[in-house]
Amino acid sequence: MTRMIAEREIAADMHPAPLTLDGSALLHQMFRFDWPAWRGLEEAERKEIVAEAQAAFAVMEAGQSQGHPNQSAMFAQLGHKGDVMFVHFRETMEELAKLERDMARLRLSDYLEPMESYVSVVELGLYESSAKVYAQLAAEGVEPHGDVWNQRLAEVVERQASAMAVRLFPAIPDGKYLCFYPMDRKRGEAVNWYTESMAERQRMMHDHGLIGRRYAGQVKQIISGSIGFDDWEWGVDLFADEPTVFKQLIYEMRFDEASALYAEFGPFYIGVRLPAAELGNWLAMEGA
């Protein structure tokens, strides 16, 4: 234990930011649907538009069976913030840009009014590995941020990324319900996450993670980093078959130190999965 504390203290002196692994590029899109304009169309035209959209969304929904899934999912959004929400996982930002153009080409897009969007990448933090490698580099007298330093860190990241490829490029979980929200770590004068030592941040994140693990059988969580990509620092996607578990999990986590003192939350979005095959019924306001 004493050695671990010493490693963390050395790590904080050398570099305050833990290493991170980056995976799939994510795009969340929230739209309001123009129901009056849609109802004004002839039935035959509506069917043509639905058929085109279903064919496109079915391919996105299926993704790839091996490697990086490059998958999308559609959700009927609840509340006044929008009517439909798309979640897209792609290998690169370039692929997300192409996806946006492909979506815009669909005739259905004429009836989708953008309400919100969010850009991020799947992120895994490496607090423990960072502390160890920083301490080792310090013991060897390696100059911080020099060529040797950068090479050694790149080797750690590459090794960890290979071991965690499935978590970095995941398939979209099958949960019936989605809860998405962005969040920040506080940077105020009195309470500032970024002035805490790496050892303290690692401790708090470990304790925070213990709560989430208790819900592992009920909720699938994907954390994505958005610093430099969007208005908040992280995005959180929660997938489950029972929506009230979102309330239970998030409520319990708010008593945790990392959330109670250091977290700021953005707007919450919740939706019910809408398979491509059911799009026609949804647009016709039919079915369950």
Summarize the structure.
With 288 residues, the protein is of the alpha+beta class. The protein contains 11 helices and 9 strands. Helix 5 runs antiparallel to helix 6 (147-163).
Radius of gyration: 22 Å
Structural class by sheet pairing and helices: alpha+beta
Q: H/E element string?
A: HEHHEEHEHHHEHEEHHEEH
Number of helices: 11
Q: Tell me, rounded to a whole number, the average pLDDT.
A: 92
The oligomeric state of the chains shown is single chain
Termini distance? 56 Å
> How many beta-strand runs?
9
Which key phrases capture this entry?
42% helix; elongated; 25% strand; 11 helices; alpha+beta; 9 strands; 288 residues; 8-stranded antiparallel barrel
Describe this structure in words.
By secondary structure, this protein is α+β, with helices and mostly antiparallel strands. It has 11 helices and 9 strands. The protein has helices at residues 2-14, 35-39, 43-62, 93-105, 127-139, 147-163, 165-168, 198-213, 244-253, 257-260, 279-283; strands at 19-33, 72-77, 84-90, 112-126, 177-185, 220-225, 234-240, 263-265, 269-273. The protein has an 8-stranded antiparallel beta barrel, surrounded by 4 helices. The protein starts with a helix and ends in a 5-residue tail after the last helix.
